[in-house]
């Protein structure tokens, strides 16, 4: 198990029944980077990964 899996599991446990929009997620990611600019590159990579995730299915 990676260290990040704990945070992912917490997210699912706390908010797993909720549905969110991509716009909400983008706002939360922006707020996170504003508060933690040292993670800008990681959030950029995650955002790009999520944006392109279904591109291979076409």
TrEMBL record:
This is DUF6104 family protein. The lineage of its organism: Bacteria, Bacillati, Actinomycetota, Actinomycetes, Pseudonocardiales.
